[in-house]
Amino acid sequence: xxxxxTRAYQSQVRQRQADDTRRRIAEAARHLxxxxxxxxxxxxxxxxxxxxxxxxxxAVFGSKTGILTELVDQTAFGPxxxxxxxxxVEAREPAERLRYAARIARSIHDAQSSTLDLLRGAGVVxxxxxEMQKKKEGQRYERQKVQxxxxxxxxxxxxxxxxxxxxxxxxxxTGRELYRMLVRERGWPSQKYENWLGAMLIDALLNxxxxxxxxxxxxxxx
Length: 222
Hints:
With about 220 residues, this protein is an all-alpha fold. The chain is built from twelve helices and no strands.
């Protein structure tokens, strides 16, 4: 077997082993949270449950907060999320893209709700949850740059609205707080929330005259 092929194979094996270790640690943490609560879910207990050294837990996740973040991410960013993102990127109409943004926000919030309920029920201390959520909000804000860049490049962004403000509006409207207030507190069905959010995003961010012109041009070209 050529040396390069051998190195590639060994690299794949190491990656599978690393992924398996990460999965086992996360599963161990979830089981301990369910049985013993947050106080009983120490790094040492997680390591014992996952059959790894405590140093391995720290090397993979850095801290208990890192493990909490992994548990939340596992439920939200699976195949369904990846498929929605693929469809959103392929959408040509800016309004359709924003409706996908609403659908993706709903998908993430729906999926994360059960895990967040588990963490709160397990007595996860408020500072740890706040730290985790602050980190996730920063990552969400960064990911949304692509959406606003597309609106700017296609001339679809509402007149008088700069890219930074548009990104902040998108970030705020798709955040978990509005979802919590409307779906969890006021009992809205998730589909109603998605429909409302899509309409809000279109109204807040799109140059409606530009959208009408693009549709007319598209009809003429057909």
